[in-house]
UniProtKB/TrEMBL annotation, chain A:
Residues 18-138 form the Cyclic nucleotide-binding domain. Keywords: CBS domain, Transferase. It comes from the Bacteria. The lineage of its organism: Bacteria, Pseudomonadati, Bacteroidota, Flavobacteriia, Flavobacteriales. PANTHER family: CBS DOMAIN-CONTAINING PROTEIN, CBS DOMAIN-CONTAINING PROTEIN CBSX3, MITOCHONDRIAL. The keyword Ligase does not apply. Residues 238-298 form the CBS domain. One of its GO terms (molecular function) is [protein-PII] uridylyltransferase activity. SMART domains: CBS, cNMP. This is Nucleotidyltransferase.
Automatic annotation (TrEMBL), chain B:
Pfam families: RNase_T. GO terms for biological process: DNA metabolic process. This is Exonuclease domain-containing protein. Residues 31-199 form the Exonuclease domain. One of its GO terms (molecular function) is exonuclease activity. It comes from Flavobacterium suncheonense GH29-5 = DSM 17707.
Length: 639, 200
């Protein structure tokens, strides 16, 4: 008897290694022994310490997270998606699982009995080498070149250590070919070098061998105190001997050496002794930076990136960091402020790289982020909006200057796209000649929006009122902001139009307090959290902030906080809105990370009762703030 | 004449089937058989079964190997429906209804039957058994449609097709509808519903 179900599973498996190396008939034979298991969200497939199962698993749909326990906390180290294999451990070892596999959403996995599969491993060299390579390279799929060595599968031999500990025993990255000076060099010059190179130490060498070190500490304690003159030579104040270490030292060892000798710098020599040739220097900063994906490191990496690909790596790591932070229930305000700093660093570096290629800018300019990035709220890889303002130039030079900036913007946006950001579908980017112009033209533009707001024009322009200065000359930002708030001041017509825009989407509750769901085919029965809940709050915050002359704060949460300070009579409502915004943002981010999308549509079926109540509680503030808008700006005259 | 009532004149396979209920081991995990029938129509008196597909579920997992599918040969009647005709011609391994029922009974044994609108399917199987002078199916039966109604507190007349249930519970469907394919989809919906209803 044919088994169409087994054939259907074989059809699925044949797309993924190592099954792709097997014959179709073999796959069908294997599939007949498979068990199909359904896992609810957050259901555990196997736990650290569990005896190994008699099957390994292939994810058929959904996603399974692999985590280890470190410092009594669960740390997510890998996520298995469709076609990924997990739980291979019983192939190689008889002892217990070293990781926990837990479904991150509703998932279906195929359980393939080890005994069924073993003959194929022995009989097929491709399959065998795939499994061995997975084991050795610590990746789930060694054929995936991009991820080589990046992922840690559950097969790794951990010695009961956690992920952070592994990183500890990896070789440390340090500055190679450090700056050195000789014993006769004058301290003034050494200090000048340290300042210009932005370094904290200089190794004093003789015949390329380290004999001492001058650091910030020596300069403050011996020169600044007046104990020695600034014109003495290095040998008078240098600390000697220097602590030296060999080249392939691990992070943990480096840290131990520093603590043991109570120093902040280690000198790396070729053979690890004082008599070796200097090859590098390790600072305390390097040790901190080497530990995990900490935000400081990402910032540093972003600043030092030389290619768009390196920036992409930083952005991908940021996604991991956000995911881990969400998993650990870190408050979303912390996550957003960290993420926006890193996002800004990425943007800044992308612009710098663009300038390197395009040539020095002819005049001063400023680059602004708009929309969600401008509000410092962007956690997901959604589309980006930006604008460019350059200094006023004489009319005859205008075209030339504008061309330069359009070219520059084009380059920068290319980089953004390579990093994974989408361009604005409305073309609200600075490579659009409408949004790349001189300060005077921009002021005119804003004046048009503010003084003659047509219904159609205003919708497009609201994101331009959430701008964040990213790069260039701050004076331009100040000039622009002053001008905008001067013309917006007490301009009731303008407020009214912003207000009308903000209350377009009413609070998303139906008559019986049920959710209002989407009706169109594609997103049927999902809840559009972005346009029905988040955007109304963002819009409301904007109109109040502008009408209260709140400058320099674009973040929705902070706008509400500030408003609460300014208007104690409405403080409760504003604070409720601030909280609601955070909760909604959290839901959206989680959904976006899970489905690798903008997180706009939430499937209510997948939410727990508690989550649904949490979500619903956010709607009352939306309703109340919209009432406040109607009263404050007397919208009844307009609508 | 009343032999089938006392069970004396029953064929061996039916005796074995009946015995499997008496000998049931209370400690063994419950074996569910998720099944689906392709029929000539929805009338349990006039129409008959074209094919049956089954797959086993045990301990919250579908056992792909615990599988049964049978195609039933024509009753000599002419089919008006062209699509039905087509379905028939493809299946050269179709067997007579009697033989199919013997195999089916031999496969399901005392398992709990699970399906989508099981009442009609079971009634049609019972009709087939009646034609063989046998009694009715003794198996317990669970309807996933009823499970869904219970989960959502819906009234009994709120009926969902299998396709609709698949959409609600995000089960990917096979493009062509066969008894075994629908049985597999029903099995996935069943697993999800079981979890959500916290059935043991």
């Amino acid at each position: 008897m044919k088994n169409p179900i087994a054939e259907r599973i074989a059809d699925f498996l044949k797309h993924y290694p190592p099954f792709s190396s097997l014959q179709y008939t073999e796959l069908v034979a294997i599939a007949e022994h498979i068990k199909v298991v359904y896992l609810e969200k957050n259901q555990i497939l196997f736990k650290i310490g569990d005896p190994t199962h008699d099957s390994f698993y292939v994810v058929a749909s959904g996603a399974i997270g692999l985590s280890v326990i470190s410092d009594a906390e669960e740390t997510l180290i890998d996520k298995c998606d469709e076609g990924d294999i997990l739980g291979l451990r019983p192939f190689f070892a008889k002892n217990n699982y070293l990781m926990t596999a837990k479904s991150r959403e509703d998932s279906i996995v195929y359980a393939i009995p080890i005994e069924t599969f073993r003959p194929y491993v022995a009989g097929n060299t491709h399959v065998l080498s795939f499994l061995l390579e997975s084991f050795a390279s610590n990746t789930r799929n060694p054929y995936d070149k991009d991820n080589r060595g990046k992922l840690i599968s559950e097969n790794i031999i951990f010695n009961e250590q956690s992920a952070t500990d592994i990183q500890y025993f990896q070789p440390i990255k340090y500055t190679k070919n450090p700056i050195t000076a000789s014993t006769h060099d004058v301290i003034r010059h050494i200090a000048q070098t340290m300042a210009s190179r932005q370094i904290g130490s200089v190794i004093i060498q003789e015949n390329q061998m380290p004999i001492g070190i001058v650091t910030d500490f020596e300069l403050t304690s011996k020169i600044a105190t007046g104990q020695f003159s600034i014109d003495t030579t290095a040998e008078k104040i240098m600390t000697t001997p220097v602590v030296t270490v060999p080249e392939d030292i691990s992070i943990a060892e480096a840290q131990m050496m520093m603590l043991k000798h109570n120093v902040g710098y280690l000198c790396v020599t070729r053979d690890g002794t004082e008599k070796g040739i200097i090859t590098g220097i390790i600072s305390e900063h390097d040790v901190v930076a080497a530990q995990a994906n900490n935000p400081g490191v990402l910032l540093k990496q972003a600043k030092r990136a030389n290619r768009s690909k390196e920036l992409k790596v930083v952005r991908d790591k940021l996604t991991d960091l956000i995911q881990n932070s969400i998993d650990k229930n870190i408050p979303i305000s912390h996550i957003t402020s960290v993420a926006s700093e890193i996002n800004n660093a990425i943007s800044r570096r992308a612009i710098e790289l663009g300038i390197e290629k395009t040539g020095t800018p002819p005049v001063r300019f400023a680059w602004f982020s708009l929309g969600s990035q401008g509000r410092r709220e962007q956690l997901l890889m959604t589309d980006i909006n930006n604008s460019l303002v350059f200094e006023d130039v004489p009319a005859e030079k205008y075209d030339e200057v504008k061309n330069y900036f359009l070219q520059l913007s084009e380059r920068v946006l290319e980089t953004f796209e390579k990093i994974g950001f989408e361009k604005s579908p409305q073309g609200s980017n600075s490579n659009n000649e409408l949004w790349c112009k001189s300060l005077t033209d921009w002021i005119k533009q804003y004046n048009t929006w503010i003084n003659t707001p047509g219904e159609k024009g205003i919708h497009l322009s609201t994101i331009f009122f959430d701008y964040d200065f990213v790069y260039g000359d701050p004076f331009i930002e100040k000039a622009l902001t002053d001008e905008i708030f001067a013309s917006a001041n007490n301009n009731h017509l303008f407020y009214a139009f912003l207000g009308t825009d903000a209350i377009k989407k009413p609070a998303p509750l139906g008559f019986f307090r049920q959710f209002l769901l989407e009706q169109d085919e594609e997103h049927k029965d999902t809840f559009d959290i972005k346009s029905r809940a988040i955007t109304p709050l963002v819009d409301a915050a904007r109109v109040f902030a502008i009408s209260r002359d709140i400058r320099g704060i674009t973040n929705t949460y902070q706008r509400y906080k500030k408003l609460a300070d300014l208007e104690p009579q409405n403080a409760d409502l504003y604070l409720e809105c601030a909280e609601a915004f955070h909760t909604l943002h959290w839901f959206r981010t989680e959904e976006g990370l899970k489905t690798d999308s903008g997180g706009q549509y939430i499937n209510l079926e997948e939410l727990t009762k508690v989550d649904k109540v949490k979500l619903k509680n956010c709607f009352q503030p939306i309703n109340d703030i919209q009432d406040l808008i109607k009263n404050r700006f007397q919208l009844t005259y307009f609508t | 004449m009343l032999d089938w009532l006392t069970g004396k004149g029953d064929p061996d396979f039916w005796k074995k089937y009946s015995e499997s209920f008496d000998k049931a081991d209370a400690n063994a995990p419950v074996r569910y058989i998720v099944f689906d029938c392709e029929k000539t129509g929805q009338d349990w008196k006039e129409d008959h079964i074209l094919s049956i597909g089954c797959v086993g579920v045990e301990n919250d997992a579908i056992k792909v190997g615990d599988f049964f599918e049978v195609f039933i040969a024509d009753h000599k009647e002419k089919h008006e429906n062209e699509a039905v005709e087509k379905l028939f011609k493809v299946n050269t391994d179709a067997i007579p209804e009697t033989e199919a029922m013997i195999k089916f009974i031999g496969f399901i044994k005392n398992a709990t039957l699970v399906g989508h609108s099981t009442n009609l399917d079971i009634e049609m199987i019972n009709q087939a058994l009646k034609r063989m002078n046998l009694g009715k199916l003794k198996n317990e039966a669970i309807d996933i449609n009823v499970m869904h109604q219970r989960l959502k507190n819906l009234s009994e007349d709120q009926y969902h097709t299998l396709d609709q249930l698949c959409d609600i519970y995000k089960v990917k469907k096979n493009s062509r509808s066969t008894a075994s394919g629908d049985a597999y989809s029903s099995a996935l919906v069943f697993l999800k519903l079981r979890k959500k209803l916290k059935m043991k």
